[in-house]
Amino acid sequence: MRIAVCDDEERFLDDIREHIYALYNSLDVVVDCFKGGKSLIKAFEKQGYDIAFLDIEMPEMDGITLARKLRELSRDLNIVFLTGHVEYALEGYEVNALRYLTKPVREDKLKEVLRYVSGKLTGGRRIKVRLDGEDTFIDVGDIIYLEAQNQYIMIYTRNGDFLVRYNISDYENELSKDGFFRTHRSYLVSLSKVKKIGKAEVVMEGGKTVPVSRSCIKPLKEALYAYIESSAF
Prior knowledge:
By secondary structure, this protein is of the alpha/beta class. The chain folds into 2 domains: 2-121, 3-Layer(aba) Sandwich (Rossmann fold), CATH 3.40.50; 126-231, CATH 2.40.50.1020. Helices cover 33% and strands 32% of the residues. The mean pLDDT is 87.
């Protein structure tokens, strides 16, 4: 696992590198530290990283701007912001930020993030669907949203769309622990893929718009902020 850490405080860079190696000293883990965004981008262009820990408040280039530039280079990079300000979280959703860690970083929270990414790299949770008479497995982390279409469900993912015969209520129960929310009787969305909340719709990753029932607007916002706060270690 290749890890990049970008922070303008050299002491923090040393500390988090030591913590990571202490937690994963027996694994194939490489940690590169950068004091500014430009040097990280230059290194990333030569050889990518699996996860990037980015301080949000840096003088040369703030973490949000840096994350946008890195996201242009890689769709799969796991971005973790280092901040004590949860209000930055919605901006982070624009670049599909994985988590938010408060400084100083707690070892148990750092370990949780690294364990998650490691598991994701080796194959995260999947659901089984029946397509053309054969069992097919879809990574839950790739699902953007689901739409009920009569007796079928269209599953929209980063890797294509899948039409399966199933019940959306069953998917709601199955995916509730994975951060999915029922915005409408016919739609189930991944909170991690929500880009923007409108008056009666949400904009999802990829730019598609999903309707939100009037009665669901407030619960959706509460669920989204709860999801953000649970990720803001």
